[in-house]
């Protein structure tokens, strides 16, 4: 299967699944039918050519397969007769809108964040269960159970395949899930690799899809800009052996300039358009970093000011921790350490390796070598990422 055909099928998969679920229900069985239709397309289209209406072809084949599956599963003649009348009459309307509804369905509030992510990657991202399991370093059987339970929870909740009335509230959950997918790819929390490029790319793809569907939503645009500006640094984040390279030491000539230009243009056009949200502010901060010729020339006072606005909108402890770093860079490690002491009792931060890592960095900046070494060792003991462990232990050894 060619790359272009693979991309076409990935783009069409959530639309076809959305069309089937909207018309017939049966999320679980509809997904199986769509997967079989995609497999048939992958086998037939390279030989017979892509049909004039690829989406219509897939919906027709998937609908027929759904009919067969439901007939087999349902013993009662009434259900079988009803299903037999479900052959689609022309191509259903919906298309991209169905993809958006499907995203909201996968991020249903009855699901845990882990289940939302898994279901989104499966139904909207088109990843196989095996691929999702590999990405999150769990056995395929575990991921199969997680996805199955997620589908059952959505069904038990009585959710209809329609745009929820609380769309504005639910959009926040959708954006969070897409951002979590990107983050797990950009900075893996476990395992031997610092980055999982395929997950980060999937997060960006989903954000682009959302931006196409909701072009006037400033936070959707902000999220896409944030991802592009962050991912632009990816080639410089690891050394030859996969080791972590902190931003201050990165070769900025390796940064992806096309992504930086796109991200900067997007956030520059978005900020004046309406209320400023957390993703837009984080994108603005990322833009300041990416446009700085060197770490020394970074406009840290501007970054501090942006973080202070961001802190008024969110109580995210990681934002508070990043604000501490910015203050230390702008005003010195003493002010950074004083500010750090005011947030280190936060329950979410207390167990996170990044708290100890920031303390170590600020102690090192202030000249407290022994304290920095101890803090680096503490941070290394808290992280489950092997590259992070190696980096932090190397910092401790160097001291």
From TrEMBL:
Q: Where is the RNA polymerase sigma-70 region domain?
A: 8-74
Q: Which GO terms describe its molecular function?
A: DNA binding; sigma factor activity
Q: Does the keyword NADP apply?
A: no
Q: Which residues form the RNA polymerase sigma factor 70 region 4 type domain?
A: 104-152
Transcription as UniProt keyword:
yes
The UniProt entry's GO biological process terms, in alphabetical order, are: DNA-templated transcription initiation
What are the protein's UniProt keywords? Sigma factor, Transcription, Transcription regulation
Give the DUF6596 domain ranges.
170-269
Source organism, top-level taxon: Bacteria
Q: Which family does it belong to?
A: Belongs to the sigma-70 factor family. ECF subfamily.
Q: What is this protein called?
A: Sigma-70 family RNA polymerase sigma factor
Organism of origin is Kribbella jiaozuonensis
* Organism classification: Bacteria, Bacillati, Actinomycetota, Actinomycetes, Propionibacteriales
């Amino acid at each position: 299967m060619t790359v272009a055909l693979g991309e076409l099928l990935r783009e069409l998969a959530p639309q076809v699944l959305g069309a089937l679920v909207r018309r017939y229900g049966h999320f679980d069985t509809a997904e199986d039918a769509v997967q079989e239709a995609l497999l048939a397309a992958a086998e037939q289209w390279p030989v017979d050519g892509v049909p004039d209406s690829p989406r219509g072809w897939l919906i027709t084949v998937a609908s027929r397969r759904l009919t067969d599956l439901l007939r087999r599963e349902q013993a009662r003649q009434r259900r079988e007769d009803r299903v037999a009348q479900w052959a689609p009459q022309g191509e259903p309307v919906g298309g991209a809108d169905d993809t958006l509804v499907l995203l909201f369905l996968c991020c249903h509030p009855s699901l845990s964040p882990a289940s939302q992510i898994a279901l989104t990657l499966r139904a909207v991202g088109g990843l196989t269960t095996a691929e999702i399991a590999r990405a999150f370093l769990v056995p395929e059987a575990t991921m199969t159970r997680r996805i199955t339970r997620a589908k059952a929870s959505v069904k038990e909740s009585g959710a209809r395949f329609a745009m929820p009335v609380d769309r504005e509230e639910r959009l926040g959950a959708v954006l969070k899930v897409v951002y979590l997918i990107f983050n797990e790819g950009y900075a893996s929390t476990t395992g031997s690799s610092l980055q999982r490029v395929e997950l980060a790319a999937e997060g960006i793809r989903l954000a682009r899809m959302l931006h196409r569907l909701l072009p006037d939503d400033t936070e959707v645009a902000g999220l896409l800009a944030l991802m592009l500006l962050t991912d632009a640094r990816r080639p410089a984040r690891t050394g030859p052996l996969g080791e972590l390279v902190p931003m201050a030491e990165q070769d900025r000539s390796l940064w992806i300039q096309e992504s930086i230009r796109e991200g900067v243009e997007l956030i520059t056009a978005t900020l004046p358009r309406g209320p400023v949200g957390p993703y837009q502010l984080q994108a603005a901060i990322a833009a300041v970093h990416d446009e700085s010729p060197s770490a020394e020339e970074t406009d840290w006072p501007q970054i501090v000011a942006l973080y202070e606005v961001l802190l008024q909108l969110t109580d995210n402890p990681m934002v508070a921790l990043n604000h501490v770093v910015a203050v230390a860079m702008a005003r010195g490690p003493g002010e950074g350490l004083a500010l750090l002491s005011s947030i280190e009792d936060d329950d979410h931060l207390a167990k996170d390796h990044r708290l100890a890592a920031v303390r170590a960095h600020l102690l090192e900046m202030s000249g407290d070598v022994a304290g920095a070494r101890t803090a680096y060792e503490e941070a290394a003991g808290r992280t489950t990422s092997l590259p992070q462990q190696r980096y932090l232990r190397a910092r401790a050894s160097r001291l």
